[in-house]
Amino acid sequence: MLQDLPLMAPLVQTFPDQGLPSVAEAVERALEGAGLEDLLRPGDRVAITAGSRGIRNIELILQTVIRRVSDCGCRPCIISAMGSHGGGSVPGQLGVLAGLGITPENMGVPVLASDRSTALPPENGEIFYVNSLALEFDRIIVVNRIKPHTSFHGPVESGLQKMLAIGLGGPEGAARIHSLGVEALPGVIPRAAAAVLKNLPVALGLALLEDSREQTMAVEALLPASITARETELLEEARRSMPRLPFDRLDVLVVDHIGKMYSGTGIDTNVVGRLKIYGLPEPASPQIKRIVVLGLGPGSGGNAYGIGLADFTTRRLVDGIDHRAMYLNALTSTFIMRAMIPMTCPDDRSAIDAAVKSLGLTDPRGIRMVRIKNTLQLDSMLASQPLLEEAAGSGLIQIAGRPGQMAFDRDNNLLPF
Fold first, then answer.
1. CB-based contacts of 240: which residues, under 8 Å, 6+ apart?
2. Cα four-point dihedral sign 326, 330, 336, 338
3. pTM for the complete prediction?
4. Which residues make up the CATH 3.40.50.11440 domain(s) of the chain?
5. Interhelix angle for 185-199 vs 227-240, to 10°?
6. Using one digit for the tens of pLDDT, what is the confidence trace for 106-157?
7. Which residues are 210's β-sheet partners?
8. Which CATH class name applies to 23-240?
């Protein structure tokens, strides 16, 4: 028997707007400032990397880079640089890119992928790998967003060096690095990136930063010699701008969608306060007793990696999983708990009901519950009544409506908000 659920009110979390007035102009200025024309030779085949992460304005950014490279008399091309994502296969990688709008039709140039990796010459006894496709180009431009990682922390996390080390490593290169264990990643990623820079004709890296509203707030073109030091500085800027939940303690968090377009883990561990990595302690905050994940986001390609961070999910999500893609992602990362299927319920209503029932509370009015669209979009959400008083006392949160019952369709699935 389904029980009563708490009333929920819409909240708007206000983040400072640091978005650039013109992203295309910022990209052009960055490339010009780095001396792009002097780094390329007319006729060069130039590879421009594209990964699996959801990056705001990525279509416009790549199109602008392509146009500037073409203006230099070169032949640009997009190459996939996502390690084992997309199931590690060529169709899978191209499918992930297509879900991000990165197609030959949108880019105006070929979009290529490879599932083959080539070993680089040993560096102090270590062997690193690179996507074999990257060896076919005269110059390479690495493009990526710099942000805190969802599995480890250090001076280098998600960004240009990780793209060089793991994204460009292909399935085998990514697997080799992850096999060293999460504790080794902060050290091995810079070493692997240095090996790639030494052996491949990388012209520059284009570093992207986003503010708490997911707007592109900075674009910097970095020459290879400056990538290591500058990326560490940019990471701290990104950390300060990272969106967060406005509450440190919740009974239930309902997440409408997970997927690679929202976070490399499907669910941003920095937002939900869970790692699920054997041997590593869980974050101290936020403390969330139950997490319910309802569905896979559009463009996920069936990769539900990160579902293991949830306690409850729905049958439609489980039925939509591409287990090969998810398992490859988990085995490559070695974080297998993140691919474990939580308690599965027939629909949204029963999943949320099960989470509430598992708390052992008799009065739903006291439940501290939040519903979000995903862990990337945190500017709007629904919150239960016990949280409204806290929200009212914060200058960054506005109560945007009166509390009401959560709205479900005839199949007991939540309506969008």
1. none
2. negative
3. 0.78
4. 23-240
5. 140
6. 999 999 999 999 999 998 999 999 999 999 999 999 999 999 988 888 899 9
7. 216
8. alpha beta
